[in-house]
Amino acid sequence: MRALYIGRFQPYHLGHHAVLKEMASEADEVIICIGSAQRSHELDNPFTAGERYMMISKSLRDEGIFNFYIVPVLDVNWNAVWVSHVESLIPPVDVVFTNNPLIERLFEEQGYKVRAPPLFNRKEYSGSEIRRRISNDESWEILVPQAVVDVMTEINGLKRMKALERSDAE
Ligand code: ATP
Ligand code: MG
């Protein structure tokens, strides 16, 4: 059985990680799509697809998980054709795991089996919450796998996020 998981992973956190660990133990292979792959260097999307790739693959490998395949997916800004766009990039999948209502709708309309994984500590394990904490110099490291902290150091992610907050307005 091949299963699909889609997210923006800005950044990858312990909520995503808990879901993927379960999926990887249940499925023969997990396909992970990095959505909005072209976006980076924005406050809501600070990290490149390659940086998000590193966060996900290092975190899973650290757990001894190797049955995954990561695919960056560019936005097409065209919901009606988005599923076929994804299909053109991935091997066939038997089931899609998502908590996002639009993604659920789009895949169901194309006949896919969609399952909603449990949400883990959603208040804190949340990309928006982690970005907010980083901006406010609050502790965020406990909300992500250690590998994500390491990648953030490697790419100088905190410095980038601080720079993105600046503006040239008076
Ligand atoms: P953002 O706040 O930037 O939207 P996010 O935490 O929602 O970030 P996404 O990359 O948007 O992360 O989500 C990818 C998938 O992971 C979605 O299906 C989302 O519902 C799910 N997800 C997000 N947080 C959790 C969590 N704490 N537990 C389980 N699933 C989660
Ligand atoms: Mg989200």
Question: Care to describe what's here?
Answer:
It is a single chain. The protein has 170 residues and is α/β, with parallel strands linked by helices. The protein has one domain (2-165): 3-Layer(aba) Sandwich (Rossmann fold), CATH 3.40.50.620. The chain is 43% helix and 14% strand. β4, α4 (101-109) and β5 (113-115) form a beta-alpha-beta unit. α2 packs antiparallel against α6 (146-155). It is globular and about 50 Å long. The chain starts with a strand and ends in a 5-residue tail after the last helix. The protein binds adenosine-5'-triphosphate and magnesium ion (MG). The site of adenosine-5'-triphosphate has 19 residues, from α1 and α5.
Could you name the key traits of this structure?
170 residues; binds adenosine-5'-triphosphate; alpha/beta; binds magnesium ion; Rossmann fold; 7 helices; 5-stranded parallel sheet
Radius of gyration: 16 Å
Question: CATH superfamily, called what?
Answer: HUPs
Mean pLDDT over the residues? 96
> Based on CA inertia axes, which overall geometry fits?
globular
Number of strands: 5
Specify the CATH class.
Answer: Alpha Beta
Topology of this protein?
Layout (H helix, E strand, L loop, with lengths): L1 E6 L6 H13 L2 E6 L14 H14 L5 E5 L6 H9 L7 E3 L3 H9 L3 E3 L11 H9 L10 H10 L1 H9 L5
Parallel strand pairs: 1-2, 1-4, 2-3, 4-5
The structure holds adenosine-5'-triphosphate (ATP) and magnesium ion (MG).
Quick summary of this structure?
This protein is of the alpha/beta class and 170 residues long.
